[in-house]
């Protein structure tokens, strides 16, 4: 296993560096979230305590920056460039894969499409200097202390757990997108039915009113043509007029109730979808509070609002 070499490191070392830096990156994100929110937030893309982008980034950065280790200026400049490129490509790839923008730096100055910004790029540059000068030498010595046999067993176990977690997370994100699709569709139907309700009520009101007025005119005409002593007929016509009015009002009420019943059912389904507790969906949204859906923007915002209420 140690004979296999990638990026200048043995595969054994690469896997250990990936795991360690992915875990340290997760710790860094948790600390950052705690400072900004005052509470614990699992900031990783995966469910477990790892941020793969940190693991991948650390392996690439350490290998590529090793020649500049003793030149702080070049080390800083190349660190900024490499980490920014990695963050940009990762953000773009995730958006293309899931149709969701997982983080957005648009509110920061000197950003590029919200994927990267000067503030964090400079922070990554400083972080890389600390890693190359202080952190990585310690990690190298730590990995050397682990017996190879035990290390292989540990790496195999962690790899299996990582793959399971990755599959589970991808499934969670796909189900979240399906949930957003249903919310979006129901929201559209509610708007459509509401428009139909308004148009239908207006149309039916005008038609029923026309019929009522026509019949009322005919009844009043017959009523006026009666002699003053035809009291019974006059009462009958008056009752007919009242009956027609009640029938008109009842017809309108039935029409409204029919439309309102459909809208009420849609709203109930909408409420269930947006209010249903799913701790995995909640974790994803809490981990990436700036996440934006390219297809279901309003649906995701509604889901965010309901999640932050709880």
TrEMBL record:
Membrane-spanning parts: 6-32, 44-66, 72-94, 115-139, 145-167
Keyword field: Coiled coil, Membrane, Transmembrane, Transmembrane helix
Coiled-coil boundaries: 209-283
Pfam families, A to Z: ABC_trans_CmpB
Domain of life: Bacteria
The name this protein goes by in its record: Uncharacterized protein
């Amino acid at each position: 296993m140690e004979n296999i070499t990638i990026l200048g490191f043995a595969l054994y070392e690469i896997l250990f560096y990936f795991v360690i830096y992915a875990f340290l990156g997760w710790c860094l994100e948790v600390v950052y979230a705690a400072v900004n929110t005052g509470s614990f937030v699992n900031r990783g893309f995966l469910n477990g305590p790892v941020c793969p982008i940190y693991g991948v980034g650390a392996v690439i950065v350490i290998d590529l920056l090793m020649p500049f280790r003793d030149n702080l200026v070049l080390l800083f400049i190349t660190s900024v460039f490499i980490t920014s490129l990695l963050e940009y490509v990762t953000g773009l790839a995730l958006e293309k894969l899931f149709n969701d923008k997982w983080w957005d730096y648009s509110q920061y100055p000197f950003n590029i499409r919200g994927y990267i910004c000067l503030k964090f790029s400079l922070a990554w540059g400083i972080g890389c200097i600390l890693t190359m000068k202080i952190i990585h030498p310690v990690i190298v010595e730590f990995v050397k202390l682990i017996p190879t046999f035990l290390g292989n067993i540990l790496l195999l176990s962690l790899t299996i757990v990582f793959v399971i977690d990755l599959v589970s997370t991808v499934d969670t994100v796909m189900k979240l997108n399906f949930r957003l699709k249903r919310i979006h569709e129901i929201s559209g139907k509610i708007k459509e039915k509401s428009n139909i309700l308004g148009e239908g009520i207006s149309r039916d009101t005008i038609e029923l009113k026309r019929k009522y007025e026509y019949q009322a005119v005919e009844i009043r005409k017959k009523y006026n043509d009666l002699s003053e002593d035809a009291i019974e007929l006059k009462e009958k016509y008056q009752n007919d007029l009242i009956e027609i009015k009640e029938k008109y009002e009842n017809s309108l009420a039935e029409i409204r109730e029919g439309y309102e019943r459909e809208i009420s059912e849609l709203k109930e389904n909408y409420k269930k979808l947006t209010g249903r507790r799913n701790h995995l969906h909640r974790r994803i949204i809490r981990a990436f509070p700036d996440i934006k859906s390219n297809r279901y923007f309003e649906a995701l915002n509604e889901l965010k609002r309901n999640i932050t209420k709880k």
